[in-house]
């Protein structure tokens, strides 16, 4: 790999954005990449935005991704995808969970949730994969595995299937959740 890859994870507090980033980072480290990760919790405990930036390659000096430089954005919630779209580079790839979480201003009626988000994203981005990761995870047994479904889709986009991701997850996720996450990862890679 000659050029570094910039991955931006965006979601809402409680969706598992940081866990997915940690699994990715650990796997990349084990595979021999230089990796830097940075996370931002914006009122995450109250349903606020969470972003994680992961950069990997031969040599990485900073974990920060500037606007227009993300090779891939993985959005755990579709309005977060729209909000972070300026970070995606031209020709970059967008993986979106077709899922809505209403922020407090929407819940109290002060604002409206954006309409036709998926259609707008499809018009703005050539390389886009929209999947219902939440439903896929729920069908597997627990909606909380949506993060690993999305991680699986990302690994497919990056062609990183050669890493033993199940082994990586085994050291990170709780033992009682391992089988579910193993299925979720496979589901996302096949989506």
UniProtKB/TrEMBL annotation:
RNA-binding keyword on record: no
Protein origin, superkingdom: Bacteria
Gene Ontology molecular function: oxidoreductase activity, acting on the aldehyde or oxo group of donors
Pfam families recorded: POR
Residues of the Pyruvate/ketoisovalerate oxidoreductase catalytic domain: 13-190
InterPro entries: IorB_Oxidoreductase, Pyrv/ketoisovalerate_OxRed_cat, Pyrv_flavodox_OxRed_cen
Key words of the record: Oxidoreductase, Pyruvate
Cross-referenced NCBIfam families: PRK06853.1-5
Protein name: Indolepyruvate oxidoreductase subunit beta
Organism in which the protein naturally occurs: Clostridium acetireducens DSM 10703
Upper lineage: Bacteria, Bacillati, Bacillota, Clostridia, Eubacteriales
């Amino acid at each position: 790999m000659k050029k570094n890859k910039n991955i931006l994870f965006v979601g809402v507090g409680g969706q598992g954005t940081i866990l997915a980033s940690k699994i990715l980072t650990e796997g990349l480290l084990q595979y021999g990449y230089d990796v830097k990760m940075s996370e931002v919790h914006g009122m995450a405990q109250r349903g606020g935005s969470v972003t994680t930036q992961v950069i990997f390659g031969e040599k990485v000096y900073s974990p920060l991704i500037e606007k227009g430089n993300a090779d891939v954005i993985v959005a755990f919630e579709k309005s977060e995808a729209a909000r972070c779209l300026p970070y995606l580079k031209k020709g970059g790839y967008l993986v979106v969970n077709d899922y809505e979480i209403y922020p407090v201003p929407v819940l109290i009626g002060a604002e409206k949730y954006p309409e036709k988000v998926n259609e707008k994203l499809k018009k703005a981005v050539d390389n886009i994969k929209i999947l219902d990761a939440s439903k896929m995870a729920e069908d597997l047994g627990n909606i909380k595995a949506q993060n690993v479904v999305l991680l699986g889709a990302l690994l497919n986009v990056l062609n990183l299937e050669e890493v033993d991701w199940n082994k990586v997850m085994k050291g990170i996720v709780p033992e009682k959740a391992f089988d579910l996450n193993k299925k979720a990862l496979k589901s996302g890679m096949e989506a």
